[in-house]
Amino acid sequence: MSNTTRTFGALAAVVLAAASVAPAAASGRLELVAQSDGMVWNAVAVDHGRVFVGGQRWSGSTGPALGLITADGGVAPYPDAAWNAWRPGDAAGTAFVNVNAINLDGRGGLWAVDTGAPTFGGDPLPGGAKLVRVDVAGNRVSRVYPFNSEVAPPGSYVNDVRFNGHTAYLTDAGRPGLIVLDLRTGAARRVLDGHPSTAAPADRPVVVDGTVVRGADGKPLKVNADPLELSPDRRWLYYGPLSGPWSRVPTWALDDPGLSPARLAGQVRPWADLPPTGGTAMDRKGNLYFSDLARNSVARRSPGGRITEVVQDPRLHWTDAPFLDARNNLWLPVPQLDRAAPFNGGTSRIRFPVQLFRLALDC
After folding, report:
1. Strand, helix or coil at 338?
2. Model confidence over 134-164: pLDDT tens digits?
3. What is the secondary structure of 106-166 as a DSSP string?
4. How far is CA 137 from CA 107, 133, 140, 201, 243, in A?
5. By Cβ atoms counted within 10 A, which residue in 107, 152, 247, 266 is the most buried?
6. What is the pTM of this model?
7. Cis? peptide before 353, omega within 30° of 0
8. Which residue stretches of the chain are H helix?
């Protein structure tokens, strides 16, 4: 267990026990709930007061790949040390290589998306690219869904996941495309492979604090299909590259393995012209909350398309995947990914401590 993370606002009493969760801060006010001097968390999920965090290996994170914030202010490897003990040369199928996203399914499952590639832009290791379900009641891995080289080919970076009954949809930020996974059989398919809606446009750079983020090659960073959300009625999947714009496609079309690539592509429609975003969350009314990287802010897009700024703060420097909990609190991990070594000539410029905020919403 790492001792490099400290919690604030009596986190042990407030968010680690569901029965004693206190009212969050007033709407529009950020509440700092945890910070770390080593773990670079880019993902968070909250279940009955337990706060889970995930950190990417390539960011320089020194904590576990998947962790649980503990009452003493540390981060315990979750679900156990073995799943967080991968080292180069180890088998990649039974441990976390590089956790990029975590999510809850509302049915007792915490899910971790593992890119299977220990370096940014690297190829997935054999057996490394996978979706892992952790039973949060039993604190154990209950199922692993590996992606073979046809589903996660060289250059793939399986990014994030959303659930629709017995189906999971995932984005691929490396090789542009989507993945449709049958959670009952484990069968996975690539769809919209290379389609313009899943590819990062060349004319939409990612700008943070007025500076264009660049990859190791010195060129503007391009991140293909990245954020995704399901409409509240589960009829539409919304998705796009990190830099936008977003598209939508009906879920019935994604779910039909007999639909030809051309017919599926014909179902894709433009949806929203959003700025570069580190991550999103959608509520039951269809409001989309997204981090606006250029403005160090979080904004809300209404179902009708109206965008309003929820909070702006220089501390929200590259806020990544937000999480909306059952009490209408928005959790905001701030990993400062544009300052990570791969985007700064091999030298990390992340300013520790890395922080985690909570924001009470008013709608």
Report:
1. helix
2. 999 999 999 999 999 999 999 999 999 999 9
3. SSSEEEEEE---SSTTPPPPTTT-EEEEEETTTTEEEEEEE--TTTS-TT--EEEEEEETT
4. 10, 12, 8, 42, 37
5. 152
6. 0.93
7. yes
8. 11-14, 251-255, 261-265
